[in-house]
C-alpha cells in the first residue's frame, strides 16, 4: 500500500469515527500481547470507542470496539461480553477481545456489534470490580451486578449511534460474559429482545474440581434472582465436556432460572475438543452453534443469511 493510500485510509476511518461520536485511540492501560494494537478490520468498519460507566457517583471510561455491516442501517445490535481467565494475572491478556471470526459471522447476519472490556480487564484495566471473593463464600450477586453496569452502559452508548436499531438489542456472552449478560438482562434495559449465554457462569475450578464450580447452589440462587426480573428469552448453550461447568450442574441453574420465571431453552452440545467450555472462541465451532443461534433469534430479529460459514470437515 502506498503512503498516499495509507493517508487516505486513515482519513476515511477518522471521518467514520467522528460520525459515530466515538472517542478515538487506544486507552490508557491497554495491555495486548504485542506492543501495538493489530490493524483495524476495515471490512467490519472496526472502531475503538470509550464508554462512560458510573462508579458510585464518578465516571470511569471503559474501552469498547464497534463493528458494523456496510450501509447506513439501522442494524440490530449485539453486545458481546468476554469471559474471565482462570488466573487473575492474565486479565490484561483479554486485550480488546477481538473474536473476529465470530464477530464477522454476526455482522454477516446483519448485526452491529459492540464489545465492551469490563473494568479490570484487558484494554480497560484497573481494579477488578466483579471479583466474587472466596471460593467457599462467593458473592456472585455483587459480581454480577458490577459486570452488568458495564454491559448496560455499553447498551446505552450503542443506542446513540445512528447505525444501531435501539429497539433490537441482543446480549451475547461467553463464560463470565454469559453470566454478565444474564445479570444485565435482569435490569430490563430498553430495546433488549434476547440473551444468548455461551457456557456462562462463575467460579469454575478446572484444575482442582473439573466441572464442579465453587458454591454451585449460590450460583443457582443468584441466577434465580436475576431471572425474576428478566423479561426476554434466553438461550443457554453449553457443551458436554465443559471442565468449568458440568451439564448436571448447569441443569440445576437452568431449573432455578425457570422456577423464578425465566423463559428460554438450554442446549448441551456433544463433547468438543479437550474442554468444551471454550467452544465459542474456536472458529471451526461456528457451524455447530450458529444454527441454534439463528433459530432462536429468528422470531425476534430480522437476520441475513451468512454466505461464508461452512460446515466443518
TrEMBL record:
- Signal peptide region: 1-33
What does the UniProt keyword field contain? Hydrolase, Signal
The cross-references to InterPro entries, in alphabetical order and at most eight, read: AB_hydrolase_fold, FrsA_esterase, Xaa-Pro-like_dom
Q: Extract the GO molecular function terms from the UniProt entry.
A: hydrolase activity
One Pfam family of this chain:
Peptidase_S15
Q: Does the keyword Hydrolase apply?
A: yes
Protein name as it appears in the record:
Alpha/beta fold hydrolase
Amino acid at each position: 500500500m502506498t503512503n498516499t493510500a495509507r493517508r487516505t485510509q486513515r482519513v476515511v476511518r477518522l471521518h467514520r469515527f467522528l460520525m459515530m461520536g466515538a472517542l478515538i485511540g487506544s486507552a490508557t492501560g491497554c495491555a495486548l500481547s504485542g506492543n501495538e494494537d493489530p490493524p483495524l478490520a476495515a471490512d467490519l468498519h472496526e472502531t475503538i470507542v470509550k464508554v462512560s460507566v458510573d462508579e458510585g457517583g464518578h465516571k470511569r471510561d471503559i474501552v469498547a470496539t464497534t463493528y458494523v455491516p456496510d450501509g447506513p442501517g439501522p442494524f440490530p445490535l449485539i453486545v458481546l461480553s468476554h469471559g474471565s481467565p482462570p488466573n487473575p494475572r492474565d486479565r490484561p491478556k483479554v486485550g480488546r477481545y477481538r473474536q473476529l471470526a465470530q464477530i464477522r459471522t454476526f455482522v454477516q447476519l446483519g448485526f452491529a456489534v459492540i464489545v465492551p472490556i469490563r473494568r479490570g480487564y484487558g484494554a480497560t484495566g484497573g481494579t477488578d470490580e466483579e471479583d466474587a471473593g472466596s471460593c467457599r463464600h462467593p458473592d456472585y450477586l455483587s459480581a454480577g451486578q458490577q459486570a452488568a453496569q458495564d454491559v448496560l452502559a455499553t447498551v446505552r452508548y450503542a443506542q446513540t449511534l445512528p447505525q444501531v436499531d435501539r429497539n433490537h438489542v441482543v446480549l451475547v456472552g461467553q463464560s463470565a460474559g454469559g453470566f454478565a449478560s444474564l445479570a444485565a438482562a435482569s435490569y430490563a434495559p430498553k430495546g433488549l429482545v434476547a440473551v444468548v449465554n455461551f457456557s456462562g457462569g462463575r467460579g469454575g475450578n478446572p484444575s482442582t474440581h473439573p466441572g464442579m464450580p465453587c458454591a454451585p447452589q449460590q450460583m443457582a440462587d443468584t441466577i434465580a434472582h436475576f431471572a425474576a426480573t428478566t423479561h426476554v428469552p434466553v438461550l443457554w448453550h453449553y457443551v458436554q465436556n465443559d471442565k468449568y461447568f458440568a451439564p448436571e450442574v448447569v441443569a440445576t441453574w437452568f431449573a432455578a432460572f425457570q422456577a423464578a420465571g425465566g423463559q428460554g431453552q438450554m442446549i448441551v452440545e456433544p463433547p468438543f475438543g479437550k474442554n468444551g467450555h471454550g467452544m465459542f472462541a474456536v472458529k471451526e465451532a461456528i457451524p455447530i452453534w450458529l444454527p441454534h443461534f439463528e433459530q432462536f433469534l429468528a422470531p425476534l430479529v430480522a437476520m441475513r443469511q451468512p454466505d461464508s460459514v461452512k460446515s466443518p470437515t
